[in-house]
Design goal:
Elements (H helix, E strand, L loop, with lengths): L7 E4 L2 E5 L10 E4 L2 H9 L6 H14 L9 H12 L6 H15 L7 H26 L8 E5 L14 H10 L3 E7 L6 H13 L3 E4 L4 H6 L5 E4 L3 E2 L5 E4 L2 H11 L3 E4 L23 H4 E2 L2 E2 L12 E4 L6 E3 L4 E2 L9
Parallel strand pairs: 4-5, 4-7, 5-6, 7-10, 10-14
Antiparallel strand pairs: 1-2, 2-3, 8-9, 9-13, 11-12, 14-15
The chain binds 5-S-methyl-1-O-phosphono-5-thio-D-ribulose (MRU).
Length: about 325
């Protein structure tokens, strides 16, 4: 059985997760019951992908109370602040942490804090499983023939529950004989496409071809791509979408060549507090990630750099947003969703 990996699971009161920074060469699993270790894993991208970091955040907050049955608000805030300080852009992290806070605030005097919080963390995980499955089913509707699909970054089971969001659709479409081939952007600088999406498609026996991010326009000029599907880290009420750096240029290229450009994400990725993408905080990461590949330097450390981890695609460039509820079309308005 090739498909024998998991991104994370909660078992015997420990979180077990795959260290994604070592893929595709090494499948190293880490087991921990320390919320601090989970926070570090999110910061270092050992655990990554918007829905997955939300799920991990839920378990981390519960585990903070495993050996500390306290209803101290001060302690909860300390844990909440640590977890939500790890990465700023994916709203799923804050969504999950806020659900944990709601549960904490409703605890009864007699409750075992850890067990009650764990219940909510498990519910978040289950609900994301359900969302991913629905997205992969609904997403079949965007295929009109057997297609060549291009995707960016990693949106599979390493980034979300079940088989993932955009990659979950691609897997389901492949199972329904609707995929010829998947083209994968390598996704500079951390190579989530080359290292993680290729790893997942290889495990799933789905044919793929890798290209560097700058090659997609050439591919589309040759009429080789029928549609593009990507994930999202935060979607504003008007549909503006933050996703992995490079997504915006892909959307612009699709617009130029008239290739449908879809976003797939659970509704936990919609930030109902913001009207447009202008309000999304973009994470900027260290220049070391640009100047080195697997710890080997490819540039000089003292050179200046620009390293946003995400960009914002304006809603009008998005052909459709697929959530577990529906396929939405421009103009988007998620206020009542
Ligand atoms: O920095 P990462 O690897 O966490 O970025 C991940 C992405 O941008 C994904 O496309 C997004 O989180 C959607 S995952 C289903």
């Amino acid at each position: 059985m090739k498909n024998n990996y998991f991104a994370l699971k909660f078992e015997n009161n420990y979180l077990h997760f795959l260290n994604q920074t070592k893929l595709p060469f090494e499948e190293e699993y880490i087991s921990t019951d320390s919320y601090e270790r989970i926070a570090e894993a999110i910061e270092k991208l050992e655990i990554r992908g918007a829905p997955l970091i939300g799920i991990a955040a839920g378990f981390a907050i519960a585990l903070a109370f495993k050996n500390f049955n306290s209803k101290s608000e001060e302690y909860f805030n300390q844990v909440y602040d640590r977890i939500t300080s790890t990465r700023p852009t994916a709203v799923n992290l804050f969504y999950a942490a806020d659900l944990m806070r709601d549960k904490f605030e409703k605890l009864l005097e007699s409750d075992n804090v850890y067990l009650r919080l764990l219940q909510t963390a498990i519910e978040i995980h289950n609900s994301e499983n359900h969302n991913s499955s629905r997205i992969s089913r609904l997403g079949l509707n965007i295929f009109h023939k057997k297609s060549n699909v291009l995707t960016h970054c990693n949106t599979g089971s390493l980034a979300a529950a079940s088989f993932g969001t955009a990659l979950g659709i691609i897997k389901n479409a492949f199972d329904h004989d609707l995929i010829n081939k998947v083209y994968i952007d390598e996704t500079r600088p951390l190579l989530q496409g080359l290292r993680l999406t290729a790893f997942e498609l290889d495990k799933l026996d789905i044919p793929f071809t890798i290209l560097t991010d700058s090659m997609s326009s050439s591919l589309m000029q040759k009429n080789n791509i029928d549609l593009v599907i990507v994930g999202a880290d935060r979607i504003a009420l008007n549909g503006d979408t933050a996703n992995k750096i490079g997504t915006l240029s892909l959307a612009i290229i699709c617009n130029y060549f008239n290739v449908p450009f879809y976003v797939a994400a659970p509704s936990s990725t919609i930030d109902k507090k913001i009207i447009s993408g202008q309000e999304i905080k973009i994470e900027h990461r260290s220049g070391e990630e640009i100047f080195s590949v697997r710890d080997r330097l490819i540039g000089l450390k003292n050179w200046d750099y620009f390293s946003p981890a995400f960009d914002i695609t304006p809603a009008h460039l998005i052909s459709g947003i697929i959530t577990e509820k529906n396929i939405y079309r421009f103009p988007y308005n998620f206020i009542n969703e």
